[in-house]
Amino acid sequence: xxxxxxxxxxxxxxxxxxxxxxxxxxxxxxxxxxxxxLVQLFAFEAIYGHVxxxxxxxxxEILVFVGTFSLINALNMIIYFFGVISIPEKIQTGELDxxxxxxVNPLLRITFEKINPGSIPLLAFSACIIAYGxxxxxxxxxxxxxxxxxxxxxxMTILYYDMELLIRCCAFFVFSVNNLTKIEETAxxxxxxxxxxxxxxxxxFIFYCVLPYGIIATLPTQALIGxxxxxxxxxxxxxxCIFTFFALSxxxxxxxxxxxxxx
Amino acid sequence: MKMIRTENITKKYKRYKKQExxxxxxxGLFHREYEEKIAVDAFNMDVDEGEFIGLIGPNGAGKxxxxxxxxxxxxxxxxxxxxxxxxxxxxxxAFKRQYAVVMGQKSQLFFELTAEDTxxxxxxxxxxxxxxxxxxxxxxxxxFQVQEIMDVQVRTLSxxxxxxxxxxxxxxxxxxxxxxxxxxxxxxxVASKQIRTFLKNINESRGTTILLTSxxxxxxxxxxxxxxxxxxxxKIYDGDTDMLFEQYQxxxxxxxxxxxxxxxxxxxxxxxxxxxxxxxxxxIPKQNTEKVLESYIGHYPIRDIxxxxxEIGSVVERIYKGV
Lengths: 263, 323
Hints:
The structure holds two protein chains of two kinds.
Chain A: H1 2-21, H2 23-48, H3 59-79, H4 81-84, H5 87-93, H6 96-100, H7 106-112, H8 120-137, H9 143-169, H10 178-193, H11 201-210, H12 213-216, H13 218-224, H14 230-256
Helix pairs in contact in A: 2-3, 2-8, 3-8, 3-9, 9-13, 9-14
Chain B: E1 2-17, H1 21-30, E2 33-48, E3 52-56, H2 63-70, E4 78-83, H3 93-96, E5 99-103, H4 115-125, H5 130-144, H6 159-171, E6 177-181, H7 189-206, E7 209-214, H8 217-223, E8 226-231, E9 234-240, H9 241-248, E10 251-258, E11 271-275, E12 279-285, H10 289-296, E13 302-309, H11 312-321
Parallel strand pairs in B: 3-7, 3-8, 5-6, 6-7
Antiparallel strand pairs in B: 1-2, 1-4, 8-9, 10-12, 10-13, 11-12
């Protein structure tokens, strides 16, 4: 554990040195991510400026929801997104060979080798929106709800990672995962705009259990506003455990069936 | 001690046989025919500690597949395989700490950073103590005479310099086995010679077992006491390298550049491979090389002359045919 930590620190230092070699590459993402965030915010205001309530959630709750989704997405972008999305290319080109021959967990290395500080401002923007939403809701918040919220943000960041990993691991068995990533993008786009509580029946099953993007921001938001039941909390934890198990097993299965690319 | 042991190791791939044209593609959506490609076929090999072995064979012979199985990158379809007592595809960290692999066409270096940066990362990957790291780094840097380029961006290095860095990175943790897959590919004669000298030194001074795959006969001849020739995934020769060349290398290739246009005499036992006004490429029976060389030097205005070993494909073909 301690050795892995030292390795990760060295890996991140290298990544930062690498990014800082190109000034535009270093400062560019700050502007791009900020612009992307503002576009999302305007889109949200355009939709919810004319809607009073969605299943009991008012404007304040929706703001907390959008801020939370954005916060989890920002954590994803900063920590592992660019590493995980490189998996299909590494499999197809045979670059994975060199990762498999080193005595560190290849997945650990891939996950953290492309951290992206360019998305750090997104964290601050997301926190501002959440704070603004909380102010609009105008209710007292308990420490217990805040701790539950932070815990669920952590868990949902893992779930987001699991989903990304599961889809990218398909590259071990199929030539291209482009269509799967399109499904992923569509599902995320939808669940970013519509809170999970708005889904019924089969849609609820799909977005809670199959492609669980529906719970990613919904459960932490419910925790913060005190609307999350114990059953809901355990459901969220169970989903994270199940998907983490599947994602890691799928990766391990893929690695042992990896055929490498012809040199 | 046996470092590598394989028994009837086999690797098979399934390949989709696509029928021609659009109709064939449509048919392929509903019914697919696959063919089996045997990359490595019932391969047996024993390697002792400290050996320097050459793995020779033409393109597609199965050399790289074999190296990938020995390093655990891919799993064999059948047979038994043991490297230092480990089953490679279990990918155990204890196993991976004891070997290194250099693939001539895949780099371990970070192109935008310096070689020194990559070395620091590898120090953490292999958990090398600081004093051992410094000692090894200084040893290799001095051996390769690369002090000047340690803090230069890797992408600005020449291919030869980059390969030296790849080897330093690979050897930093004192591996017991070094797998080299075409390490001199694309290098000029000077860089290739430096790499060969370096590898010889490592094998002799550190006792590192080295398995080298190469297309270049010069590499094998200069470094490996023992050679294994592979073709169509099968082992067709395993023995002394000198014997191999003595027995199966029948000719050499001589390239002569003349100062100006000449019409040289060509002995009847030579085969003309290429002829222009000022260039002549000949295939010469090995025993007559010196005689032919003497007949040209002094008699014709020669600008440059080069003698190469026979191509690996011809040697393999001869072993295969048993002639």
